[in-house]
Amino acid sequence: MKKLIGLLVLISTTSAFAQETHSPQFECHQSQSPETKKYLMLGNEFPQIPEIDWSHEAYFADKEKYPSGEYKQSVLYIIGESDEASLTAVNPSDTTQYLVLSGETSLFVYNSEGVTSYNCIPLRFGQRAFAQ
Q1: DSSP-derived pairing of the beta strands 33-43 and 57-62
Q2: Rounded distance between C-alpha atoms, residue 17 and residue 45, angstroms
Q3: What spatial distance separates the first Cα and last Cα of the chain, rounded to whole Å?
Q4: What mean pLDDT do residues 48-63 have?
């Protein structure tokens, strides 16, 4: 009976965490408009359930879109290279759109019209971004 209860608790806990597919890792803003905040959200993975793995995905969306899940209507980026100091992600549907996070404080968003730079602050789990 104890094992069954433990299993049910583990399943319900994992299920609750699995609903959060992407977590905000960085809060970013442009220098000229610091009041407009955006999140760089990185995909989560759940080692106990290998089929649940979004760690290769990233979204860059308005902060207000995170709680409702509306950020998923934004461009999905696929994370390529990452290390302790940088992260690169590209839009697979349009390879002229990509993100480069440098030194955990500078984010560059590239597209066919040019580049936009953002200042970023790592959030609580920001260090995890480079542990892939």
Answers
A1: antiparallel
A2: 10
A3: 38
A4: 91
